[in-house]
């Protein structure tokens, strides 16, 4: 495991210490879990963005297909 050194505002560190104590876990474990949760949230956000992008592309293609069907349904000899 790699060691990381970082600077935190006193109030943020104190809050992390208090919450870690309430959960009966070491402060370092609390911070590790917080980073893991943040990583999961960022990944989920990226997935949502990709899904929306792909959905918009598919929607545009679906609209073209719908227009083609409308043209055929409106003119049975087409």
What keyword list fits this structure?
single chain, 78 residues, 79% helix, mainly alpha
Model description:
The protein contains 2 helices and no strands. The radius of gyration is 26 Å and the shape is rod-shaped. The termini are far apart. The mean pLDDT is 91. It has helices at 10-23, 27-74. It has 78 residues and is mainly alpha-helical. It has one domain (10-74). Helices cover 79% and strands 0% of the residues.
Distance between the termini: 68 Å
Which structural class do you get from the secondary structure elements?
mainly alpha
Largest sheet: none
Strand content: under 5%
Mean pLDDT: 91
* Count of alpha/pi helices: 2
- Count all strands and give the number: 0
The general outline is: rod-shaped
Provide the succession of SSEs. Answer: HH
Please describe the topology of this protein.
Blueprint: H1 10-23, H2 27-74
Summarize the structure.
The protein is an all-alpha fold and 78 residues long. It has helices spanning 10-23, 27-74.
